[in-house]
Amino acid sequence: MPPSDPHHHPDDDSEPEMLAEDDALEEIEDGEGDIAMDSDNEDGQEEITLHNDSIAYFDQHKDSVFTIAQHPKYPSLIATGGSEGDSDDAPGKGYVFDTSAAQSGPVLPPSYNSDPTAAQTTTQLEPIFAIEGHTDSINALAFTQPNGEFLASGGMDGRLRVYSVAVPGSGSASAAKIAFLAESQEVPEINWLAPCPSATYPNTIALGASDGSVWVYTIDASDASNPVQIIQSYFLHMEPCTAGAWSPDGQLLATVAEDSSLYVWDVWGAAAAKSLVTENGQTVVALTAADQRFAVEGGLYSVAVSPSGTLVAVGGAGGFIKVVGLPRLSDDTPAAAQRGARGAEASSTHAGTILASLHAQSDSIESLAFAPAPATLLAAGSVDGSVAVYDAARGFSARRHLRGAHDDFSVVRVEFVRSPPQSAAAGWLLTSCGMDGVVRRWDLRVGSAPAAHQQQQQQQGGAPSTPASSGLVKEWRGHRGDGEGGGVLGFVQGETGERVVTAGDDGLVLVFEA
């Protein structure tokens, strides 16, 4: 079984942890929302009672759930993957299931019920399909864009396995027909998968591998002899390729690696047609640690491309973030995204230029996310437990620094809600998860004092931020947490963010309602 985060180092706490008196009282009083999770596992595991805010759960996994993916057209169709046990030879396994059976929770708190002591009910979800055939953990899953016709799984065994996905005309995800199509194995281990968002190049998947290579495949079920076709393969990274992200138009693919290199690949030749590629003939941006302005000792582990497609942000060890300009290759960028890019350089003449070097956090940047256009925010989640938010329209000044956003446990993922039900909140709602086992949602309009002012206030002995003043609007609990096999290793939230589905290090998948 792989570690949930192989490049993290355990915290060195020299003093024993003590439970504060207030925390102890709070723990004793909290009973109304507790639900016992029993996975019907009869191998002697201890039943654990947790504070549980979920409305549904899936508990078929026998060990950590490393990855989760959501169908682009039918958001209730979820795929999860992990390991079948904690032994070194345990195979990988995943599942596909439908969350639409989860009943919405009550609008009012339990104290308003006729029987306030009655336990909240939660729905147990059943699998539609089992993802098998991997001899080691599944640590990457992706539905293809734009219609989710295929599901791809990537494992630590180096296998890329592809399944056809057919949802009936009724649109019932629970009736989806899923079948194995083909597999390819070109690398020792697959670290990540990313579907190409372009409708011009549908059913295309990129992957990054432990040997540093990057591969792009197109899936064509009509070609029985070769349904999983290699489109491109790249070999410039010298160490494991840790993350990748497509530009919104699907023309460019940005990848980073442990050797602190960033390459932005001209996958379809659009940049070459405009003479915008670098000397290697494959990329529009090629930056490595040889450039001291770009070097990040310890490697790069996260990457994100702005909605306008003119900026790429990379995050790495020590809390460092670099923002680099990209060329604009197409004219079909939405007007809102173009407006959002005005605050930062968006010209092709700045492709490859380091536009900002940011360092507000003290440990590795695990996740980066740009807000949907026309907002201009960039969020970063760090191993130090904090979330930092920068504003591209103001020279990437630090707008917020949510210290202890996840109680000093690693922040695993941050993602903006793309289309919240309240349109006024668009571009301002951010969801995060961490190794504390909690998912939190932040409204970045609230408590929006600049990060520098917040730090100065704390240094002068000012009162620490409260959850309300920090912009915390919701949090969901149910995973074991505390960094001991119970963190949240990923989540999906659809377009509206009304339901959040989590992948837990404790082997649970939970469904929460906003």
Automatic annotation (TrEMBL):
Keywords: Repeat, WD repeat. Residues 1-11, 474-483 have a biased composition (Basic and acidic residues). Pfam families: WD40 (PF00400). Residues 12-23 have a biased composition (Acidic residues). Residues 1-23, 449-485 are annotated as: Disordered. WD repeats lie at residues 131-165, 234-267, 358-400. SUPFAM superfamilies: WD40 repeat-like. PROSITE patterns: WD_REPEATS_1 (PS00678), WD_REPEATS_2 (PS50082), WD_REPEATS_REGION (PS50294). PANTHER family: ANGIO-ASSOCIATED MIGRATORY CELL PROTEIN, MITOCHONDRIAL DIVISION PROTEIN 1-RELATED. This is WD40 repeat-like protein.
